[in-house]
Amino acid sequence: MPLVQRISTFLRSPRGQQLIDRGRRELAKPENQRRLKQLATRLSGRR
Asked: N or C: which end of the chain has fewer CB within 10 A?
C-alpha cells in the first residue's frame, strides 16, 4: 500500500481523528501560535 494511502486511511481512523483534534486544540493556544510564528520567521530568514 502506498504511503499516502496509508496516511489517509490512518487519518480517517478513530486514532487519527483523536490526533487531529489534539493538534487543533494545541494550535488554538496563543503560546503555540507565537512559537510557530517565531519558527516561520526563522525559517523564512534562511532563504
From this structure: C
